[in-house]
Design goal:
Blueprint (H helix, E strand, L loop, with lengths): L8 H14 L6 H14 L6 H35 L32
Helix pairs in contact: 1-2, 1-3
């Protein structure tokens, strides 16, 4: 059994942040986790403290300026599709409104007798 090298605490914290954000990422956690692992392995050779801190800062910037906005956009679109204005031509609801059949101004059934 080989002992794994110790992770820098900042690197571990950044990895955890990416995994937490990946839960809500549009592609799902599993594909997102693989991309994150590949990115972290590319920089595994860094040993200089300054290089590690600089790379972690870049990773945090990317998380807050690229990943989080994609997640927020997905959530916004989902909410907009669910609860948006029914007359809005750009948004189609996932399902018809619940009370579409029982509205008070609905026409009476054929035959002239109401319920």
């Amino acid at each position: 059994i080989m002992a794994s090298p110790k992770l820098h605490p900042l690197v571990r914290d950044l990895y955890k942040r990416y995994i937490l954000a990946g839960r809500d990422y549009p592609t799902g956690l599993a594909p997102f986790r693989e991309l994150v692992k590949q990115s972290f392995r590319k920089n595994a050779h860094l040993t200089n403290e300054e290089d590690i801190i600089h790379t972690v800062a870049r990773g945090r910037w990317y998380l807050s300026n690229e990943i989080i906005p994609v997640i927020k956009l997905r959530k916004y679109r989902s909410l907009r599709a669910r609860y948006g204005d029914p007359d809005d031509v750009f948004v189609e609801p996932a399902q018809p409104p619940i009370f579409s059949k029982g509205l008070p101004d609905a026409p009476a059934p054929a035959g002239g007798k109401a319920g």
